[in-house]
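URGENT: need a sanity check before tomorrow's submission.

F., can you look over the DNA N(6)-methyladenine demethylase record below? I want to be sure the sequence and structure line up before it goes out.
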Amino acid sequence: MVFMYRLIEANTFRLLTSPVPVPYISRQICSGLLSIRKMNSGKDSASEDSIPGGAGIKLRPSPNCIDWRECRGAVETSSDSLGVGHGSFGKRRSKIDLRSEQRSGDGNSSKFGNKNIPVRVKRSKSGQSCCKPDEGANHVAPFDICLSGSRDSAVLKSLQEMEENQENVEHPIEESGGQGVLRPGMVLLKRYISLGDQIEMVKTCREIGLGPGGFYRPGYKNGAKLRLQMMCLGLNWDPETRKYEDQSPADGCKPPCIPREFNQLVETAIQDAHGLLGKDCTLSNVEDMLPAMSPDICIVNFYTTTGRLGLHQDRDESSETLDKGLPVVSFSVGDSAEFLYGDQRDVNKADKVVLESGDVLIFGGRSRHIFHGVTSVIPNSAPKALIEETRLRPGRLNLTFRQY
Ligand SMILES: O=C(O)CCC(=O)C(=O)O
Ligand SMILES: [Fe+2]
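Structure tokens as predicted:
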């Protein structure tokens, strides 16, 4: 009943508008201020399942993005559910201890919050929404990255298939080359995120993703769609304009904030990557190879098992960020994926690595402009306990953090 209400309400609140270029914006939404000044209008051809690059604006992100915990419109978890925000996610590690953590008995621990209690979605007591979507447009309910109901046949089927699959399949960690420096400025931390933190990350993304500025399927004006669901935190990235803006094209809402715990984990991961790079005695300053950064943007993608993303460069951040080579930090959770990367937009010339649940990939410095993409998601490869705890749909959650 509550869920029905939620769906009806979501349909009333969300709308789908085609992304419209906003050359000059000075907008105030929910006390957030952002100014965008158009610098140039360089434009490449946009195609389905690729994210073309092209920096074109100068903007100043506001620290006053929506605090999704206080202002999440129709979505609220009960006080006994997520417990997010009270933990110390990401603070716990200063040394790299990767493969062992996820495999060992305590690998599912999380300081992020209470891990055992399922997410419960209900209407906010206040019914408050920071966002007043426009009226009269198409209404689309946000995409739910988790399946509802523990007895959902899709969950049971997925768990069963996963069990069968994982009995036969060799673990791809060895095939994928393990962790380390993949190329100058590009570091892979295998199984870096503990299972407990992965679980909390899924629950948090699910909760934010069901609220204002949540998951939707991005596309272009010509009707082509990316083969993924997306939600942007901090600032919204628009595939049509390839610009960062202060509202989501799906519902007109201001993007929710990046949870503090996510940013802490990013910072710790960069420090640990520096630790790895520091083992190379010829490097006098690891920051020359891989600069540090403070993320103010997080693009959260969810790929179903047929999802993918064409080769592209991430080059829509500010010229300062790009010139300094401030890294993109990517978290993978759920099913594994084949990730391609290389110097050209050519799949035949690209290198391949399998990104598994818990992996952190960092590319900055001389690798900041690499072409990269996801060619396939490997079905039934997610950790079983993650699916059991979160009911994450078959597929892969990916979070990429950037500094504008
Ligand atoms: O899913 C991934 O691993 C990559 C995502 C990505 O490249 C992006 O969002 O720009
Ligand atoms: Fe990218």
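My own read: Residues 51, 312, 314, 372 surround fe (ii) ion (ligand 2) (CB under 6 Å). The mean pLDDT is 74. If you see anything odd, call me.
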